What we know:
The protein is α/β, with parallel strands linked by helices.
Amino acid sequence: MTANLGNRQDFDCFRTYLERVCGILLGDNKEYLVSSRLRTIMEEQSLTNLTQLVERIERNTQLREKVVDAMTTNETLWFRDSHPFRILREQLLPELSKEKRPIDIWCAASSTGQEPYSISIELEEYKRRNPGALMGERIIATDISPTALEIARRAEYEKLVLSRGMTDEYLKRYFKEVQEGRWKLNPEITSRVQYRSLNLLNTYSMLGRFDVVFCRNVLIYFSSDLKTDILRRIHSVLKPGGYLFLGASESLTGLSDLYEMRQCSPGIIYHRKG
Ligand SMILES: C[S@@+](CC[C@H](N)C(=O)[O-])C[C@H]1O[C@@H](n2cnc3c(N)ncnc32)[C@H](O)[C@@H]1O
């Protein structure tokens, strides 16, 4: 292990702490990852090992937020995996719009905004093609990372970021170039997305109830017990008959009492039972 992180015991102390505060489970081989992500903080704080860091963050909430922020992986892209967005557009919105009431969507690990804004673009496109079909819609987007939330709220992206999944058609329709190579999303897309800071380990009761929940590419970082607990609690905030999307590499096991898996060929959605 590198000098500024300490020994194996220090690493174990840190990973136990990290899992307790935000669920992120670090494998035995993640010392390099921890070292690269926390080097600056360790130096700023003049700390020589991770046990000292844990002792300090137990007493310092701001530093704890900074450390958790540094340990999150915010990898995301526009219209990631495409199927969830097609299923939303072709199946869920036509079904939900028949109920003639506002639609509530929760994006449970929104990272830097690409996922909730892709959902918002789908809603806007649906409204363009079906005038008067939607009776209002709200997207609540939550994440634990303050840095990711700040980028998401700003809604300005570099060309390189946009090249990861944003089409030229939507770029022209929904963004304005605010600076050479830097584009800002229009209010028609941003205004229906409300961002909140939320640790998925904490209660969801203040968020309300949802027709659709996107909880993608975050449960992979958690233990199977925690994943089950989160999926049970998501069930309790889904409205009767609501839908859940997981990431392409994620699955839902042992919860057949709560969710029914629906194959959409291609793509999968989970339908709330009960
Ligand atoms: C890999 S990104 C996935 C983003 C998006 N859902 C997607 O699929 O493209 C994972 C996100 O989960 C967030 N995250 C990690 N642990 C969390 C927790 N305990 N509570 C809330 N968000 C968390 C990270 O900050 C990160 O932005």
